[in-house]
Write a structure and sequence with these properties.
Chain B: It catalyses: glycerol + ATP = sn-glycerol 3-phosphate + ADP + H(+). The complex is a heterodimer. Chain A has helices spanning about 5-20, 25-35, 40-50, 65-70, 80-95, 140-145, 150-155, 170-185, 220-225, 235-250; strands spanning about 55, 65, 100-105, 110-115, 130-135, 185-190, 195-205, 210-220. By secondary structure, chain A is α+β, with helices and mostly antiparallel strands. The longest helix of chain B has 27 residues, at about 375-400. Chain B has helices at about 50-65, 110-115, 125-130, 140-145, 150-155, 165-175, 185-190, 205-210, 245-250, 310-320, 330-335, 375-400, 415-425, 440-450, 460-465, 475-490, and strands at about 5-10, 15-20, 25-35, 45, 75-80, 85-90, 100, 160-165, 185, 195, 200, 220, 225-230, 240-245, 260-265, 270-275, 285-290, 300-305, 345, 365, 405-410, 430-435, 465-470. Classes of the chains: A alpha+beta, B alpha+beta.
């Protein structure tokens, strides 16, 4: 087992020192208090500043605890809150794409549908909020999987159930699909959960860029994809725009 | 071809919002800014009209920028506004006389009691469609005139203008002291107590009764016509619509046929039913109001049931009790239990509105036992909105003779799935949410777009309406009846709490 990482111990000490201080502290004061070389303290402080755990006052050049640290314990986003913040953009997405919209979050290795907007054709449709979908066979699931180490871990040792001929059941193929999602910023499913159905999804990011859910459309494969079974770029753009708009409202715009 | 849009301004109680809509009635961009709530004395609620105007100047360019659009892509601007909030301002300087007196403000309680005893009081409801209450604008105008030295004389000379928020914004948009247009629309005018509901004109008897000089009143226009051209904020853009926010929501929900009903769930809830081109008098505690009027077409009337506290009860649960940190968490908390555990909350925080109209009622929590947890209370909070809706729907069905078959719901609380299910359960009719929840803004945009020919007619707008969600009743009829009975017994316990001899503590 590897030993403790010295720089993390030092970073923790700096945070404790700042938490205990009445006002801001300069890099020199911090280095002096902790018996660190000035350059070492400076390097750690710059890194902490990058991740938002400390903030540097432009005038005095001194440091204090950062806002991101205060949000650390409360970064949990209630699913009903997520729905409430996303509802306008989900409506607009359904309206533009002409397809049903769902928002999903991760729940014990599956996708929990937390919001559902009907396909805007006024046909009879049933609300499926509360339904659980498989991570590996849905666009929503893959968007979550690609950006959440816990999600990826949660299904690493499970058997990937085949729903259709095209369902990804091979863990390494799923990992490759996740990498593609990370690179492209969106995920797709084409007849992987049910025959004739396709979907497109993109991650929703909250404070600090953390992925808190995914938003996507789903519908008949001939509407969602072109003749060569590739999702329509127009629809992909709508989904990504909606995901970005929700993320912006949740404070995840920088990512 | 360059995309063209309609801009909607929703001047609400807590914030002002600019929303850009496209031809499909789809929301393109939103910019919003809250304004300060002033509570100078218990029962007083004020807004600073200049702050609201400055907020509009700020957010309008933001909404355009978000959409990557310029003002010349906007075909018209429509305004929906908080109703009954009263602004007086100086025609020559544009400076407001004091702050705006907000619809929630009850400072006119004593004045209204006095007016109720004055000769002519009995004729007010018949003429205006409204009960004589602090809720409406006329007593506020009178209060301002009575309490500002020299104001009445200046108002009689036409130097001081009255308007609700849409008047104030249109006057400023169209130039302010430099040729600003002083108008209101029939829906807003129908909330003043000063307009004859049939002729749609200011009524001399009502003006005399309330002591409001005609010279200070705006011209009453339809809800959908070009009032003028903006010279500020959106230079060159036509100002094409104004509606009270609840009427705007009725319009945005495309409730164009008699019997069609919407309910907007916000701080309070407002149920409006289209009753066609003749006003229906209520025998069950509802208001008769103008729904909308498009250009020269006949006005369409509505019955309105107002519920004072719905979302505000959730806010109280969050801010007053601190049991949740955000409003939507109420659903998370309430879902932890299957029922209310026998507990009922009646939020008569400042009396009860429709259908009871009991100013002396105060809120109760009944049925408390040691079994009750915060989860049951959360459930009772949501159920309170459900049962209050039921009471108003029952009254509406009796007055109109039309049985409600489906409720079109909108507003922020429609994102609460449990609440929407509860409403469907207690009403025993399906509840549908439209694809655009922002129906207040959409209604103003529709009316403005119609005025300038961006949309051809009502049928086209109807085709824009799509169901985004639908909840169907799933409650056992026996349980529904038993719960309703419990709710009614809980409501009875709120009556008569404030006794005439002590008065409201807020008034002392």
């Amino acid at each position: 087992m590897p030993g403790p990482v010295q720089s993390i111990e030092r970073a923790a000490a700096i945070l404790r020192l700042l938490a205990a201080s009445q006002g801001r502290l300069g890099a020199g004061e911090i280095a002096g208090s902790l018996g660190l070389a000035r350059g070492t303290a400076h390097g750690i402080l710059r890194t902490l500043e990058r991740v938002g755990f400390v903030e540097r006052d432009d005038g005095s050049g001194k440091y204090q605890l950062g806002a991101a640290l205060l949000h650390l314990g409360t970064s949990y986003l209630d699913v009903n809150e997520l729905r409430s913040r996303a509802i306008n953009w989900a409506d607009a997405l359904a309206s533009r794409s002409g397809e049903a919209v769902r928002i999903g979050t991760l729940l014990e290795g599956r996708v929990l549908v937390v919001h559902h907007v009907f396909r805007p054709d006024d046909t009879l449709q049933a609300m499926d909020v509360g339904t659980l979908l498989p991570l590996h066979a849905t666009a929503l699931g893959k968007a979550l999987l690609a950006h959440d180490a816990n999600a990826a871990a949660s299904i690493r040792d499970t058997v990937l159930e085949p729903y259709c001929r095209r369902t990804i059941t091979e863990p390494r193929a799923l990992a490759r699909a996740a990498t593609r999602v990370r690179e492209s910023g969106w995920a797709a499913e084409v007849e992987e959960l049910s025959i004739g159905e396709a979907g497109i999804a993109a991650p929703i990011r909250g404070h600090g860029g953390l992925v808190v859910g995914a938003i996507g459309i789903s519908g008949a494969v001939e509407r969602v994809c072109d003749a060569s079974r590739v999702p329509e770029p127009r629809l992909v753009a709508f989904v990504r725009d909606a995901a970005r708009a929700v993320s912006r409202d949740l404070g995840g715009s920088r990512w | 071809m360059t995309e063209r849009y309609v801009m909607s301004i929703d001047q609400g109680t807590t914030s002002t919002r600019c929303i850009l809509f496209d031809h499909g009635g789809r929301l393109v961009s939103v910019a919003q800014r809250e304004h300060r709530q002033h509570f100078p004395k218990p029962g007083w609620v004020e807004h600073d009209p200049l702050e609201i105007w400055r907020n509009l100047e700020r957010i309008a360019p933001e909404a355009l920028a978000q959409a990557g659009a310029t003002a010349d892509q906007v075909v018209a601007v429509g305004i929906a506004n908080q109703r009954e909030t009263t602004v007086l301002w100086d025609r020559l300087t544009g400076v407001p006389v004091g702050r705006a007196i907000v619809w929630q403000d009850t400072r006119t309680a004593a004045l209204v009691d006095e007016l109720a005893r004055a000769p002519g009081a009995a004729a007010v409801p018949g003429r205006s469609g409204l009960p004589l209450a602090t809720y409406f604008s006329a007593p506020r105008v009178r209060w301002r005139l009575d309490h500002t030295p020299g104001l009445r004389e200046r108002a009689e000379r036409g130097e001081v203008l009255f308007g609700t928020m849409e008047s104030w914004l249109i006057w400023n948009l169209s130039g302010g002291v430099d040729g600003g247009v002083h108008v209101t629309d029939v829906t807003n005018a129908s909330r003043t107590l000063l307009m004859d509901l049939r002729t749609l004109a200011w009524d001399d008897d009502l003006l005399a009764f309330f002591g409001v000089p005609r010279a200070m009143l705006p011209e009453i226009r339809s809800s959908s016509e070009t009032y003028g051209t903006a010279r500020k904020v959106f230079p060159g853009v036509r100002i094409g619509a104004a509606l009270g926010d609840q009427q705007a929501a009725l319009f945005g929900q495309t409730c164009f046929a008699p019997g069609e009903t919407k309910c907007t769930y916000g701080t309070g809830a407002f149920l409006l039913m289209n009753t066609g081109t003749a006003p229906v008098r209520s025998a069950n505690g509802l208001l008769t109001t103008v729904g909308y009027k498009i250009g020269d077409e006949p006005a369409v009337y509505a019955l309105e049931g107002s519920i004072a506290i719905t979302g505000a009860l959730v806010q109280w649960f969050r801010d007053g009790l601190g049991l949740i940190t955000t409003a939507p968490e109420i659903e998370t908390l309430a879902r932890a239990v299957d029922d209310n555990g026998g507990c009922y909350i009646v939020p008569a925080f400042s009396g009860l509105f429709a259908p009871h109209w009991r100013g002396e009622a105060r809120g109760v929590i009944v049925g408390l036992t040691s079994y009750i947890t915060k989860h049951h209370l959360a459930r009772a909070v949501l159920e309170a909105t459900g049962w209050q809706t039921r009471e108003v729907v029952d009254a509406m069905n009796r007055d109109s003779g039309l049985g409600l078959r489906e409720l079109k719901a909108d507003g922020g609380m429609t994102s609460d799935n449990l609440l929407m299910q509860i409403v469907a359960d207690v009403l025993n009719v399906p509840v549908a949410r439209p694809m655009v929840v922002e129906t207040v803004s959409l209604g103003a945009a529709y009316a403005a777009g119609l005025a300038v020919g961006y949309w051809a007619g009502l049928e086209g707008l109807r085709r824009n309406w799509h169901r985004a969600a639908r909840w169907v009743p799933a409650m056992d009829p026996g349980r529904r009846a038993a719960e309703y009975d419990n709710w009614r017994r809980a409501v009875e316990r709120t009556f008569g709490w404030i006794r005439a001899e002590d008065g409201d503590p807020a008034d002392r």
